[in-house]
């Protein structure tokens, strides 16, 4: 028996309407703020702890609102205005973090973790996946708002490279979210963000002499993402080309990266085949692809994934 209160449908609708009005008011206020307003407000926090709390709570609020679908899906203008305003606030707060919480003494792991998870939630939200819209609707959005996925994707990339020795704090935790971002079918975004994987590999290898945590996480999350509809042949080509190019001048890493690329390419090929045949009427085709996956996971000693299939 559910412990949640059972509201009549009318009350639920009323609550949603009130929430959308509150969010609209907040969006309107934020849209009126320029750089000076943001800077002045940030300076009102005299203590580091209060500023960190404010930023963390802001990131959690934005992430919650992005996932809540405050407005109906056909209210595209309102959704895009909200996204544009949120994106500016997120980028402004990220600049504040770069200035105040990037050095060794002041680095705040949880704060940066909240930022990355918010940024990935923003970039992967359904309302920004332009490939699902009609050409007319897609062009209207691009003309008026641009592709906000690129803007925040490039910001994520730039901030990642600024983390320096702190990157290891986000491996393997951020491998899945970064993978989800790179799977977005937008060529420039993929080319800009896939190199983060090589940087993660280099970081973990420098620290531990291997990148087992990264590899294990990629295999686990790739299976989940492809099952959910992510990934395609072009992604596989880009991943292979970019990682091998990055490793070309790293003699100590090159053989291991080549092996990793071969592993991921083999897995992705089988996962894409498996996803395709799941809608096939041929029982033999489905069984054949399932057996291919089983044998692959068995050969690479991934017992958990073997048992799952």
Order of helices and strands: HHHHHHHHHHHHHHH
Largest sheet: none
Estimate percent helicity: over 70%
Main structural class? mainly alpha
The number of E-state strands comes to: 0
What integer value in Å does the Rg equal?
A: 22 Å
- Count of discrete alpha- or pi-helical segments spanning 4 or more residues: 15
Low-confidence stretches: 1-16
Q: Strand fraction band?
A: under 5%
* Straight-line N-to-C gap: 32 Å
Mean pLDDT: 91
Shape annotation: globular
Features:
309 residues; mainly alpha; 73% helix; 0% strand; DOCK; Dedicator of cytokinesis protein 2; signal; TPR_DOCK
Care to describe what's here?
InterPro entries: DOCK, DOCK_C_lobe_A, TPR_DOCK. It holds the Pfam family TPR_DOCK. Residues 19-242 form the Dedicator of cytokinesis TPR repeats region domain. It comes from Characodon lateralis. This protein is globular. The model is unreliable at 1-16 (pLDDT under 50). It has helices spanning 9-31, 35-43, 48-68, 76-100, 109-124, 135-145, 148-162, 175-182, 187-193, 195-208, 212-227, 233-247, 254-277, 283-299, 303-308. The protein is built from 15 helices and no strands. With 309 residues, it is mainly alpha-helical. Helix 4 (76-100) runs parallel beside helix 7, helix 5 packs antiparallel against helix 7 and helix 13 (254-277) runs antiparallel to helix 14.
């Amino acid at each position: 028996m559910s412990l949640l209160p059972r509201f009549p449908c009318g009350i639920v609708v009323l609550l949603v309407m009130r929430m959308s009005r509150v969010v609209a008011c907040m969006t309107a206020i934020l849209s009126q703020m320029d750089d000076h307003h943001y800077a002045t407000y940030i300076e009102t926090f005299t203590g580091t702890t209060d500023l960190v709390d404010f930023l963390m709570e802001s990131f959690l609020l934005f992430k919650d609102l992005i996932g809540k679908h405050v407005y109906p899906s056909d209210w595209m203008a309102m959704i895009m205005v909200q996204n544009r305003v949120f994106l500016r606030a997120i980028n402004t707060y990220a600049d504040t973090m770069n200035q105040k919480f990037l050095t060794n003494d002041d680095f705040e792991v949880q704060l940066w973790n909240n930022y990355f998870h918010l940024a990935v939630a923003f970039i992967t939200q359904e309302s920004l996946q332009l490939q699902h819209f009609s050409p007319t609707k897609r062009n209207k959005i691009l003309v008026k708002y641009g592709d906000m996925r690129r803007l925040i994707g490039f910001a994520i990339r730039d901030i990642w490279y600024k983390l320096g020795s702190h990157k290891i704090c986000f491996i393997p935790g951020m491998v899945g979210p970064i993978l989800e971002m790179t799977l977005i079918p937008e060529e420039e975004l993929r080319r800009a963000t896939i190199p983060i994987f090589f940087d993660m590999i280099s970081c973990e290898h420098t620290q531990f002499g291997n990148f087992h945590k990264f590899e294990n996480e990629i295999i686990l999350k790739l299976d989940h993402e492809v099952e959910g509809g992510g990934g395609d042949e072009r992604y596989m080509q880009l991943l292979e080309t970019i990682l091998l190019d990055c490793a070309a001048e790293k003699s100590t890493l090159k053989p291991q990266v080549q092996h990793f690329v071969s592993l991921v390419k083999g897995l992705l090929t089988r996962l894409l085949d498996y996803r395709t045949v799941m809608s096939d009427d041929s029982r033999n085709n489905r069984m054949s692809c399932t057996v291919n996956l089983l044998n692959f996971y068995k050969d690479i000693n991934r017992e958990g994934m073997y048992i799952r299939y």
